[in-house]
Amino acid sequence: METPRKFPKQARSAGTVRAIVEAFAHIFTRVGPSGVNTNLVAKKAGVSIGSLYQYFPNKQALLIAAIKHLAEERLRRLAQIRDTLDGKSLETVLDEMIDVAVDLRVRDQAFDRVVIENLSHFRVLETLREVQEDFIVVLSECMARARMPGTPEEHRETSRFLYQAAFSVTLWIGYFEGPDGDPERQSATFGACCWATCAHERSLEREHGFAAHTS
To answer: What is the pLDDT of residue 105?
Structure first.
């Protein structure tokens, strides 16, 4: 069994689950899959091991929950952009979308890197694909509401490209910078790469007259 045993219905239970998932993500990022265990997670979360097992049968279920937890926060930030697009230029919308990606991708890069390094040990590809598709939907909605030229399918293709580029660039920066890299420099590099790749892929410079950001 790889999914949670049950889902919390009350606020207190939801808080317990959140504490467990965040504790797992914290430990998993620092010691990797071989070092994390449910006893450590329960202690970090401040719950009994019995409480943990009420919701999560094993590390696999905890990892899937952690991936989805981080994705939900990113999606909330993007949805806020989507819901406040009126009157904004396409350049501003893309700026805000990239800022969210920069902020959260750089913050979570250590967790993402450990997940990718250990894909052979965990069956999470389906979860990662589900997360990607959720992002593509919201990104496409942002582009449509911002009146970006193109068909819905073209918006989806651009969204898929931008999401995959964001993921790849973050991992690349993380490997070269390491865990002690300067966050501001990483953010600047990531933002510049996103602008450059997006501008190149969709010819935004030519169509809309604005240049890719370099800082």
So the answer is: 66
Residue that the structure tokens 């911002």 belong to? 146
Give 10-residue mean pLDDT values along the chain (215 residues).
Answer: 54 85 94 91 96 92 92 88 83 76 71 79 82 90 83 87 74 60 64 62 47 42
CB 135 within 8 A of CB 75: yes
CA distance 29 to 114: 6
- Cβ-contact 81, 100 below 8 angstroms: yes
Query: How many alpha carbons lie under 13 Å from residue 130 in its C-beta half-sphere?
Result: 11
* Cα 71 to Cα 93: distance, rounded to the nearest angstrom: 20
DSSP string, the chain: --S-S----SHHHHHHHHHHHHHHHHHHHHHHHHH--HHHHHHHHT--HHHHHHH-SSHHHHHHHHHHHHHHHHHHHHHHHHTT-TT--HHHHHHHHHHHHHHHHHHHHHHHHHHHHTGGGS--HHHHHHHHHHHHHHHHHHHHHTT-SS-HHHHHHHHHHHHHHHHHHHHHHHHHH-TTS-HHHHHHHHHHHHHHHHHHHHTHHHHH--PPP--
Q: For residue 179, what is the DSSP state?
A: T
Write the DSSP assignment of 102-125 as a string of letters.
HHHHHHHHHHHHHHHHTGGGS--H
Instruction: Tally the residues of the chain.
Output: 215
Distance separating alpha carbons of residues 159 and 75, to the nearest angstrom: 13
